[in-house]
Amino acid sequence: MNQAALYHFTYVDGMGVLLLWVGWFVIGRLVEHPPKGRPSVSVIMRDFRRDWMRQLVTRSPRIFDANVIDNLRQATSFYVSATMIAIGGGLALLGKGEQLSNLARDFTAQPTPEVVWDVKILVTLLFVTDAFLRFVWAHRLFGYCAILMAAVPNDPEDPEAFPRADQAAEVNIHAAKNFNAALRSVYFALACLPWLIGPLPLLVAATATVYVLWRREFASLSRQAMLVRVRTQ
Fold first, then answer.
1. What is the DSSP letter of 37?
2. The pTM is what?
3. For the range 16-19, what are the long-range contacts, defined as Cβ-Cβ under 8 Å and sequence gap of 24 or more?
4. What's the CA gap between 99 and 181, in Å, rounded?
5. Overall domain count for the chain
6. Is residue 29 part of a domain?
7. Of 64, 66, 20, 63, which is closest to residue 187 (Cα–Cα)?
8. Is residue 32 one of the residues assigned to a domain?
9. What is d(CA 45, CA 35) in angstroms, rounded to the nearest whole number?
10. How do residues 10-39 score in pLDDT, each as one tens digit?
11. What are phi and psi of 124, to 5 degrees?
12. CA distances for 180 relative to 137, 138, 191, 206, angstroms
């Protein structure tokens, strides 16, 4: 990037990008390691996943469980394909700054160098690429989980039944952890797109994304419904 292009990025741009990355990191840590006494939805779901695998031991036939894990793999596979297409589309936009300038003409007060557009697209692609890699790994882990589930004995008296069920549960939890992290990256990739209009829209989008993710994990109605079940144990 030449020095002249750097002058097209303002302190507001820097604040927006900083908020984007810090928000992505902090909300991820907060979701996976919430404060004591206020678990996130992702943490609450870990107990449900462990209970699911323990119920698997005595369930016969296991068609329901097979359908659930298959649906999880299909959903993950869809996102793998979607993010791969998004990466291809983003790469195709690199070097097309003139066309993007024409599209954004009504929103920008002055012409923008092509390299500036490329930087904005690359930041978006970083989030999309992170999502793609995590979705791929989550898909593979759900596949491992399906095999572990098939290895769980149906007889609860079998000494290997519950230990294997616990193994399947932990792999399932790790798969869900990667899936959720990938979804967060998709959210922040979408938050990058308003940057094509300007730095202020980026600030607003980054702030809104952090708030939406926090609310869904810590203040949603679905979380309250899950906590009712947890508190009655």
1. T
2. 0.87
3. 16/195, 16/199, 16/200, 16/202, 16/203, 16/206, 17/123, 17/202, 19/203, 19/206, 19/207, 19/210
4. 33
5. 1
6. no
7. 20
8. no
9. 16
10. 888 889 999 999 999 999 999 999 998 899
11. -60, -45
12. 12, 9, 17, 18
Place of tokens 């193994």: 167
Q: Token digits for 167?
A: 């193994």
Q: How far is CA 147 from the centre of its chain?
A: 24
Q: Which two tokens stand for residue 179?
A: 């899936």
**H/E element holding 137?**
helix 114-150
Q: Is residue 27 in a domain?
A: no
**Residue 26 falls within a domain, yes or no?**
no
Cβ–Cβ < 8 Å for 173, 49? yes
Question: Averaged over 37-55, what is the pLDDT?
Answer: 93
Chain length of the chain: 233
Residue 125 belongs to what domain range?
60-206
H-type helices in 7-96, by residue range?
A: 11-32, 41-58, 63-93
Q: Rounded to whole angstroms, how far apart are CA atoms 137 and 121?
A: 24
